[in-house]
Design goal:
The chain folds into 2 domains: 220 residues, Multidrug efflux transporter AcrB transmembrane fold, CATH 1.20.1640; 190 residues, Gyrase A, domain 2. 56% of the residues lie in helices and 17% in strands. A 4-stranded antiparallel beta sheet has the order 3-4-2-12. Strands 6-5-9-10 form a 4-stranded antiparallel beta sheet. The protein is elongated and about 95 Å long. It starts with a helix and ends in a 14-residue tail after the last helix.
Length: 466
């Protein structure tokens, strides 16, 4: 390869490492920007500063396990009912402002369970209370314009008076209006009347639509509701959150209706799940609760970081002692590998747990393993009195099949673990899988570029360095 191209790749690697390092830890770059802006008024912007997402075991929080009572529904509807419940519970948790809650379903010994992890939550008791309720589905009809305006005026009146406490609000005439939905009002049509919702497709346009089937009592209520709202919107709410607001085209009899609109297949599936979750009686019971304090989480994080640093330093010492100059550049490539991987964790919003950090540290070992294979092949070529450039390229060529097979095998295991494992196993598998992909880039591109710089130089003749 021409030296000009080698230098271009080297510069690209350095630039990539610079941006990755500052993305990982932008503190010093931002200090420098403030210094330059204060002295020279250059207007240098701050580097994007986003924290790493820490999991429950590192940040502290609550781990809840619920068991769902599916005795009231048919077995074929179990998966959709559980998925609908998962969506509703996740929406409820977001009301509390919990960052990236983990809500997932699990089948264990014939029991359907819902696992909820709330990292950093301050009031687990209130979250438990909200999560334990069955989702509430309701249909609301559109208000008259005069009603909407009255509510909006009352909301504006309270805001303009800068009233903050409930006692002060209650002194305002008709203060209850300020807490009502200004556009839709409640009806007596709720989820208990809905038999089921299904995803269908328009036979003419093939666009997804949602069909609703009400029970006998619900059919009468729905018929009355649609007869007085022709041309108006009928909103569908779950837990007070609006899911859809279709326009009633005509009076609907027989208890069957269709919701059409600009649905994608995924959005239509999600709406069907939510409708069924709000309609089916699927209570859940808390069977396990574990609380991890923030102090314990901080200690776990410190110990994990210390283990990673000690392991990293041990690898560097080993590489330099056994492989001398190639080991030194492999260690430098390993440092770049670490900052690249950490920046990817930030960009991909990977939630780091103890298991995830374990996968990250293991991937460092995989990255070193690739370099060991390459350098061993290089030495074999050099012992046969081949030139440094030839030995370098042959070392990478001969080492690649073993590197490829070993990493692909591990990557396959990581994919299986991610697909079939639970939360902590998924974290381990994800960081390990990403680490393996980046490690191959580090060994094949970064280390190789560093060594190619010495091809054709005097240093390549110093065989004791290689």
């Amino acid at each position: 390869m021409r030296k000009k191209r080698v230098y271009l790749i080297l510069i690209s690697i350095i630039v990539l490492a610079f941006f990755s390092a500052n993305l990982d830890y932008p503190k010093y770059f931002n200090y420098g920007a403030d210094f330059l802006n204060g002295r020279l008024h250059l207007g240098v912007p701050h580097f994007w500063n986003a924290p790493f997402k820490l999991g429950l075991d590192l940040q502290g929080g609550t781990h809840l396990v619920y068991e769902a009572d599916l005795s009231g529904i048919e077995k074929k509807d179990y998966p959709s009912a559980m998925q609908g419940l998962r969506d509703i519970i996740e929406r409820r948790i977001n009301i509390f402002g919990v960052q990236e809650p983990l809500v997932q379903t699990e089948e264990a010994s014939g029991h359907s369970r819902l696992i909820v992890e709330l990292a950093g939550i301050k009031d687990p008791a209130e979250a438990i209370k909200m999560i334990g309720q069955t989702p509430f589905l309701e249909f609301r009809e559109e208000r008259a314009q005069e009603e909407s305006q009255q509510i909006l005026d009352k909301i504006k009146e309270i805001k303009d008076k800068d009233i903050k406490t409930l006692e002060e609000i209650q002194q305002v005439p008709d203060w209850q209006l300020a807490f009502e939905d200004p556009y839709f009002k409640a009806t007596n049509l709720t989820g208990k009347y809905l038999k089921r919702a299904d995803l269908n497709f328009d036979p003419n346009t093939s666009k997804p639509l949602i069909s609703l089937q009400f029970n006998d009592e619900g059919s009468k209520v729905f018929e009355e509701l649609t007869s007085r709202n022709v041309g108006k919107r009928l909103a569908i709410y779950i837990d007070g959150v609006q899911l859809s607001a279709p326009v009633v085209q005509e009076k609907i009899t027989g208890g069957k209706a269709q919701i059409t609109g600009s649905f994608t297949i995924e959005s239509a599936k999600e709406l069907v799940r939510n409708l069924n979750a709000g309609a089916l009686p699927v209570p859940i019971k808390l069977i396990s609760q574990q609380t991890v304090g923030p102090t314990l989480g901080a200690v776990s994080l410190q110990k994990s970081l210390a283990a990673g640093i000690y392991g990293f330093l041990a690898v560097i010492v080993f590489m330099i002692l056994f492989y001398r100059l190639p080991g030194l550049f492999a260690s430098l490539a390993l440092g770049i590998y670490v900052v690249l991987l950490l920046s990817l964790f930030k960009l991909m919003s990977v939630t780091l747990t103890l298991a995830g950090i374990g996968g990250f540290i293991l991937s460092i070992g995989m990255a070193v393993d690739a370099n060991v294979l390459i350098f061993s092949r290089m030495r074999e070529e050099l012992r046969e009195k081949k030139g440094f450039g030839v030995a370098l390229e042959e070392g990478f060529r001969r080492g690649w099949p073993a590197i490829r097979d070993g990493n692909l095998t591990t990557l396959l295991i990581a994919v299986i673990l991610f697909a079939l494992g639970t939360s902590f196993i998924k974290g381990f598998a994800l960081t390990l899988g990403i680490g393996i992909l980046v490690s191959m880039f580090s060994a094949i591109i970064i280390t190789r570029t560093f060594l190619r710089i010495f091809v054709g130089t005097r240093i390549e003749r110093w065989r004791w360095l290689w």
